[in-house]
């Protein structure tokens, strides 16, 4: 076995430092959330216990943690569904050239570099000046879509750019209508990508702060609530909240990965059954 070059160890060390930089703060918060009842917000730890996790489920003197969590979860689902539907429709529309398609594509890309706080300010002003109520389910929903739809559309553009249209032609030759072709041919093929877009939509919405700051109205989402708690809460309960929200995020990602795996198994099984039927 040939010895590994020195560059391998340099890159490995660099990658290790990157992982520490990336996950170090999260790991630190997780460790501090297990402080004892007399623990503080910094090291050294004063005992080890689950006290602050229990305290998190008690009535808090400051903030509305679980109300903000429900709002963030509901908003994430709304944004996720809308992002998937609009992204698929946009991806299908851009398969054919139409007047202004190039300009529209550049506008979509340009929107990615606009500061999020300006988007939040603009959406909030539009709603307030129009006499509409600034609320997390309306203005907050619209502000977050200006972020999630961009990623969803770019993903769908890439998916449909390499999509083999012969599958659709074969379905039409067999008598399928346009809707049947999309439902029974196109959507099953791009299902893993749709799950990726859904995951993008939910996670980007769930932890979005800047675009929600001036559009949530009088009810905070979870990121806004956590930010508010940093100026009032002086106990490790905020670390316990951060740990639970991180675990929740990993659970959501795990569920989406599991769905993709199940779809892949079903597709492989269906292909195998079709092959046996032809034999």
UniProtKB/TrEMBL annotation:
Chain ranges passing through the membrane: 7-34, 73-94, 103-127, 147-164, 185-206, 237-263
Keywords: Cell membrane, Membrane, Transmembrane, Transmembrane helix, Transport
Superkingdom to which the source organism belongs: Bacteria
Signal peptide: none
Coiled-coil segments on the chain, per record: none
Residue stretches making up the ABC transmembrane type-1 domain: 69-256
Membrane topology: Multi-pass membrane protein
InterPro entries listed in its UniProt record: Bact_Polyamine_Transport (IPR051789), MetI-like (IPR000515), MetI-like_sf (IPR035906)
Compartmental location: Cell membrane
Family of the protein in this entry: Belongs to the binding-protein-dependent transport system permease family. CysTW subfamily.
Protein name from the UniProt record: ABC transporter permease
Organism for this UniProt entry: Mesobacterium hydrothermale
Lineage summary: Bacteria, Pseudomonadati, Pseudomonadota, Alphaproteobacteria, Rhodobacterales
């Amino acid at each position: 076995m040939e010895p590994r070059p020195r560059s391998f160890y340099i890159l490995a060390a660099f990658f290790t430092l990157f992982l520490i930089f990336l996950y170090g703060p999260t790991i630190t918060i997780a460790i501090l959330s297990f402080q004892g009842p007399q623990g503080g917000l910094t090291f050294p730890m004063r005992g080890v216990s689950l006290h602050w996790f229990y305290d998190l489920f008690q009535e808090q003197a400051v903030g509305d943690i679980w109300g903000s969590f429900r709002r963030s979860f509901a908003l994430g689902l709304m944004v996720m569904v809308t992002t998937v539907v609009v992204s698929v429709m946009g991806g299908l529309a851009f398969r054919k050239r139409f007047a202004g398609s190039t300009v529209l594509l550049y506008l979509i890309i340009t929107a990615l570099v606009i500061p999020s706080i300006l988007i939040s300010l603009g959406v909030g002003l539009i709603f307030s000046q129009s006499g509409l109520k600034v609320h997390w389910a309306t203005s907050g929903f619209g502000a977050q879509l200006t972020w999630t739809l961009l990623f969803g559309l770019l993903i769908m553009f890439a998916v449909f750019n390499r999509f083999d249209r012969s599958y659709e032609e074969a379905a039409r030759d067999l008598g399928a209508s346009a809707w049947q072709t999309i439902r029974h041919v196109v959507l099953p093929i791009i299902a893993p990508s749709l799950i990726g877009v859904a995951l993008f939509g939910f996670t980007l919405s769930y932890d979005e702060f800047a675009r929600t700051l001036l559009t949530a109205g009088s009810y905070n989402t979870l990121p806004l609530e956590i930010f508010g708690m940093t100026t009032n809460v002086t106990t490790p309960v905020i670390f316990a909240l951060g740990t639970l929200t991180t675990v929740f995020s990993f659970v959501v990602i795990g569920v989406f990965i599991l769905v993709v795996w199940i779809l892949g198994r079903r597709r492989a099984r269906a292909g195998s059954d079709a092959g046996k039927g032809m034999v």
